[in-house]
Design goal:
By secondary structure, this protein is mainly α. The chain has three helices and two strands; from the N terminus they run ααββα. It has a two-stranded antiparallel ribbon with strand order 1-2. Helix 2 packs antiparallel against helix 3. It starts with 5 loop residues before the first helix and ends with a helix. Keywords: Membrane, Transmembrane, Transmembrane helix.
């Protein structure tokens, strides 16, 4: 539990909200926004431990590919949110 930060817990909450909104409301764009943002937060901060040759436990660094994926998901969430606002504003009354 020590490796879980507030950002990971918030990301898990957002991902859960996205999954529930997909199952209940069937609005895929809204669910994609929540899931993309939540998974981006999780990927950006989740850390794993390893053991070195002397038996000491240390935190592994976050791989570059995971950081790039997290940034992509966060940017995608913002772009999808702007698309959602655009579609909502141009919807006929």
């Amino acid at each position: 539990m020590k490796s879980f930060s507030l950002r990971i817990l918030i990301g898990a909450l957002f991902s859960a909200i996205g999954l529930v909104s997909l199952f209940i409301t069937k609005e895929t764009l809204t669910a994609a926004i929540w899931l993309s943002f939540g998974n981006g937060l999780i990927l950006s901060d989740l850390r794993f431990t390893a053991t070195d040759e002397q038996g000491r436990v240390y935190l592994k660094p976050i791989p570059r590919a995971r950081i790039i994926s997290a940034i992509f998901l966060l940017v995608l969430a913002v772009l999808l949110l702007m698309l959602q606002v655009y579609l909502d504003l141009n919807q006929p009354q």
